[in-house]
Amino acid sequence: MDPVKSLRLEEKLSLCDGADAWHTKSFPEAGIPSLTMNDGPHGLRKSLDSSEVADINRSVPATCFPTAVLSACSWDPSLLEEIGRAIGEEAAAEGVGLLLGPGVNVKRNPLCGRNFEYFSEDPYLAGKLAAGFIRGVQSAGVGACLKHFACNSQEYKRFNSDSVLDERTLREIYLRAFEIAVKEGKPDAVMCAYNKINGVHCSDSKKLLTDILRREWGFDGMVVTDWGAMNDRVLALKAGCDLNMPGGSAYQEEEVLRALKIGELEPEALDRSASRIALLALKARKALEERPPCDRAAHHRLAKRAAIESAVLLKNRGGILPLDPKLDVLLLGPMARELRYQGAGSSHINPCQLHQITELRPDLPYLPGCAADGGKDAGLLREAVAAAKKAGVPVIFAGLPDAFECEGFDRDSMKMPEGYLELIDRVSAVNPHTVVVLMCGSPVEMPWAGKVRAILYMGLPGEAGAEAIVDLLFGKASPGGRLAETWPLREKDCVSAPYYSGRKDAHYREGVYVGYRYYTKAGIEARYSFGFGLSYSSFTYSDLRVEGDAVSCRVKNTGRVDASETVQLYVSPPGDDVYRPELELRGFKKLFLRRGESAVVSFPLDDRCFALWQDGWIVPAGEYRIRIGGCSADLPLCASVLREGVEWKPEGLTDWYAHPVGTPTHIDFERLLGRPVCERPLKKGSYIMDDTIDEMSGDSLVARMTARVMQKKLASAFRGKTDSPEYRMALSSVLDAPLRSLKIFLGRPSRLLDSLLDGVNGRPTALLRELLRERARKD
Ligand code: BGC
């Protein structure tokens, strides 16, 4: 039975625009309820306001799980499933029918401000973890919404940047994680990203939302825009983009009605979208009638276990960790008293309970050593160094403060704040037993790594982070994580470094060479390789066997403690002189082994393990190597397998793609794409609704004045607290949002922005008229 059958055409259209920031509209006479949607993905952010512009941090209390940057290091889809289930239970308890997560965008460069919300630089790992999370959320009866589809790997100009890339890179890297998550997790919804892909907005892309997502991958749920991502509603309905969010602006409803009237848009397209929304709302209502029990104390324990199983031991010279309780431990660094446990932006959770290291171990002396924002403070440093000299083991809690990484803007560099660098340098110089516990949502440069005894990486560990750290430091638990991304030695080692930052359009010149795919092929040493992580135990690998379409090996815990190991399988292609990564992750399995215990692990070897994209998935013929071990840089087992397949030789590429050394040039890139790439010049007279106030400010006084007014209004809404990451994010949501998105954010139909566009293009009359009308409306 079609739930929207009895709705009038205008009602169907209205259903396809939300009611406010978090709900769809209800049509009680037709039996269609409203659907409530809230963020994810590391806990529930059920906003206490119905407007998105309201204080982003005001939300109902919820368990704050480790952020994806850390939970990904668990390499454990079943753990993600447990986390998803718990978040689903909390969402159901709050009447939320759709959880806006997980985020599965590939980490293309360490500077992306939102990397902490994403899993990995590897699409296979990211896809498997996301699928686990989705299964968990949906087992509680709440829908999961996979985001941000697709190629949203930078925050700079996120609302209107164009991700330019070739089809092979798109398929093998940037769509692959979504493909796995959709096929194996079966999410109820997918959120399309803000950006364009090769000039087409994700919301308008039939190729993305229908041809690939629905036809190729079999997705049968609802597509919702990211908040403010809708571009052209007629194209979007044709493309299969169903719901415009946030709602309430009736954005482009007149255009859709006109298109329907003149036959440019088929009514079936609108019917299909309205039906998908109604079906999901009905499904959610039914599921919410049977809410599963929600045990927040158990969720807190799960958050702690997840942090422990994901924590990565990066260094442990002389086995100083776990710490001997008899040692005289000194706690240092502002993060011991105020742990950085989550990221800023739409994923910010108001945690249920939160403890600090200093509070869990009041018996240990504590000194900050630098300012709370990571800035230098000579007095605090002096005190800390003097105490460290006398201490048994100084443990420094360091990393990136909130202001350094946040949704809405990218990081300026990979450097840690000066105050932390100085503290680590000076303390390790006076005490050789210094240990660092690192909290950050993305890799940092660590020129100090050689100077300290041990490093424990905790990512952003969630509300139970401090409890997990105490157990890990003092040996009540063993760190079980492996890095889900490469940590380069220096920012400039990253292939995209010269052309990533500060560019509106994202040119994916490096093609498929993302993360370890680049470092291993180019032979560039990393600080810590993909898949790396030490353990309090040790493991050996043996008995590699390839039988038919499967490979197996034996793994043994040869150390003195029970611990987990993550077995990783990579495939290397035939030949070096080809445009293919040297290693690609094709299987992994996390094992828990008691000391002395061994286990056999086996992996299937299907065609996709060897395939690449060339107008479809093909397997180039030749001798492949299967490599297995506990880290991409340490793969003790290797076997060759012959694959029958097709002759393959990429044509027209420059040599960089077979031998990626140095930076790919614009010319290399144009050859990879097979077409020229140029950016649209911005100038008065030719601005369009897709341009932003910031972009128009260059040559328009009207835009500059508008920017100033908006900035002032925002600063007063933030009561002058303009140094917070939330303010910076909100400011970018205004100045960097295209006019079309501002129309949506306004939440009510308005012609003001159309006339503003006229104004900046040199035709101020309409703008003046609209301003007068707005003033009259307010009076
Ligand atoms: C973010 C999404 C989020 C949405 C609703 C957007 O700005 O990109 O990830 O789900 O806001 O808060």
Give structural notes:
It is a single chain. With about 775 residues, the protein is of the alpha/beta class. It is built from 24 helices and 28 strands. Strands 10-16-15-14-11-13 form a six-stranded mixed sheet. The chain has a five-stranded parallel sheet with strand order 1-3-4-6-9. The chain starts with 8 loop residues before the first helix and ends with a helix. The relative contact order is 0.11. The structure holds beta-D-glucopyranose. Beta-D-glucopyranose binds near residues 39, 227 and 346.
Report strand %: 15-25%
| Proportion of helical residues | 25-40%
What separation lies between the terminal Cα atoms?
A: 48 Å
Number of strands: 28
Average pLDDT, rounded to a whole number, is 96
Decide which structural class fits the backbone. alpha/beta
Radius of gyration: 26 Å
Bound molecules: beta-D-glucopyranose
The coarse overall form would be globular
Task: Give, in spatial order, the strands making up the sheet with the most strands.
Answer: 10-16-15-14-11-13
Uncertain runs: none
Number of alpha- plus pi-helical segments: 24
Biggest β-sheet strands, sense, barrel: 6 strands, mixed
